[in-house]
Write the structure tokens for this entry.
Amino acid sequence: MRNFGYSLNKSSVIDLEKADTNLAKEIAQEEPSFLYCIYCGTCTGTCTAGNFTDFNLRKIQLLVKRGQIEEIKNLLPNCMLCGKCQMACPKGVNTRHVLLILNRLVHARKI
């Protein structure tokens, strides 16, 4: 097979009908402000951990709502729970509590 300077990537299409959104529902039950997130990225922009690691709260919240929970487990330990993201959030999402709930649920499910 010849290489013509390009490669095919795996499809990134997400079938939301088949996605497991139970984790997002559980988080929203315990912390209703989770539903207010508009994915503006302010939390990620103010994140101290994000400056030194690949931690990205906006990405984590998107992955949870899309049901792509396998990728989350490796990102969670990087959060320092400093609360800067919560103070900066324009919608008042209690991101610190969301991360604590998410951490507990991920470990309980042994994902």
Remarks:
- The two ends are 38 Å apart (CA to CA).
